[in-house]
Amino acid sequence: MGVLRWRSLLDSHIAAASAQPLSKLDPEILTALRLAVYQLGWLTRVPARAAIHESVELVKRARKRSAASFVNAVLRKIAGVSPVENSSPHAISDTSAETLAASSAHPLWLVERWVKAYGIDSAFRICQHNQSVPVTAIRLRRPEAEEQIRAEGIELAAGAMLVSARRVLHGDVTKTAAFRAGLCVIQDEASQLVAALVGEGSNILDCCAAPGGKTQAIADRNRAAKISAVELHSHRASLLQRLLRAHPPLAEAAASNISVIAADARSLPFTSKFERVLADVPCSGTGTLSRNPEIKWRLKPDDLDDLQERQLAILQSAVAQLAAGGRLIYSTCSLEKEENEDVIESALKQDSSLRVIDCSTELERLKQNGELIWTDISSITRGPYLRTLPGVHPCDGFFAAILEKI
Q1: CATH number of 2-86: 1.20.120.530, 2.60.40.10, 1.10.940.10, 3.40.640.10?
Q2: Which of 50, 239, 371, 398 could bridge across to 366 with cysteines, CB 3.0–4.6 Å?
Q3: Considering only CA atoms, which of 290, 292, 288 is closest in space to residue 280?
Q4: pLDDT tens column, 69-127
Q5: Using DSSP, how many helices (H) and how many strands (E) does the chain show?
Q6: Is-above-0.85 flag for pTM?
Q7: Contacts of 125 by beta carbon, 8 Å cutoff, 6+ apart
């Protein structure tokens, strides 16, 4: 994870010490070099000789024995001159988009977008957060779970946004009996908040349901509701089905009211209409880079157009399943306008039966109900939409819009 977070900065140190261009190096060799440089500059308890030795051995094991002396020379040069240490790799600078991107190991095109959309200060905080290990947040499905978790030596703190949330300060919550029994689930607080925005209804559709965190949260809030959970891939639908069977909703009778369907959300197989619909669509995931740092190296600007086309198709299909007076929550874990506001605006232009409900209204309702403990609602909204930013807010970056069928 450390190598994935800091890859471009690691590569700059390797390039400075290597006689060979990085583009000419085999992937196995470059990977071994990155691992060693990360250990040399970021891990304090690994001796330099051990880091170098292990990477040289990795190259040999990868059947690149002829490159072993090259890897050894490059790493000894880096360790001897200590450019990693002297350049303070953890010091992120925000004097410009260029320096911020270089010092925080982010692609420049992404940082430039965030500076334009949110300002240099917020972009700095986003990048800084992305380079850290994120906190583990859990959702308590039953109040008594907290006492059970603490009894097993897990240190918890109150959630920052929701009453049902807790933050794990110390210990592995996945090894507790409460977690294995399904009394709590690991779920980021922004994700929990999106599920809470769905509200209440007797007939609910979750368009892109796997892995099932939001489906389960919706079911826990709507114990008597009939819920249809759609997932494109059959193997993921099967995993979702097993999750719901192993850890059913809080009311035992509600377990049989959840139907898992393997289908394409762009062509939903329903004839009846739904009072509530969640369209948590596939997205770039740029709001989750602290958990998924590989995204920033794979994502390309052109990908956003392809994603937008798919997202709009899913949204339009979901709208067709919405009953009159019903509400649809569209959400992503992306920071990019193309996947968020632009999709909503396109849908509104093409369907006059839709109107936007200000998320502030629903957030105030959650606050009045004692579920939302975040006090400054205006700070987590942008226009009529929910907008959280990693590093600025204590959660992943999420966008949500509420649409109502007139």
Answers
A1: 1.10.940.10
A2: 371
A3: 288
A4: 999 999 999 998 554 444 445 688 888 999 999 999 999 999 999 999 999 999 999 99
A5: 18, 13
A6: yes
A7: 389, 390, 391, 392
